[in-house]
Design goal:
The protein has 119 residues and is α/β, with parallel strands linked by helices. It is built from four helices and five strands. The chain is globular.
Length: 119
């Protein structure tokens, strides 16, 4: 199954970025694919849910995530993150500080999608 794909939730289109249980090399590839998809969309049009449950990462991935999050800002109406463990929350905090974006955290993907469709 594709890791970057559009899904429909309550008749609304949401872009799912599925980093769940991926390796560091996979994460880099997913980010590159997501950049192409996101930056081909109209500004302020996207609802995005990012699932990082069990994802592996290193400093290269962290830096790439920071740049990715910052560069996506013009295209995103709302975004939510699912599945962060305690260590990943440190990375999340760095990315949000760098990008000057607030990305709500959820433990459950369905709750994240419900929140997004209200935006």
């Amino acid at each position: 199954m594709k890791r970057v794909r559009f899904i429909v939730h309550s008749w609304r289109q949401i872009l799912l970025l599925d980093f769940s249980h991926c390796s560091t090399n996979e994460a880099i590839n997913i980010i590159d694919e997501a950049i192409e998809v996101i930056r081909s969309q109209p500004e302020s049009s996207l609802l995005i849910v990012t699932d990082v449950t069990g994802a592996k990462y290193d400093l290269k991935v962290i830096e790439k995530f920071k740049e990715f999050t910052s560069g996506n800002k013009p295209y995103v109406r709302a975004s939510a993150v699912v599945g962060l463990d305690e260590l990943q929350k440190v990375v999340y905090n760095a990315a949000t500080l760098f990008s000057k974006r607030t990305l709500p955290l959820f433990d459950d993907i369905e709750k994240a999608k419900d929140w997004l469709i209200e935006k």
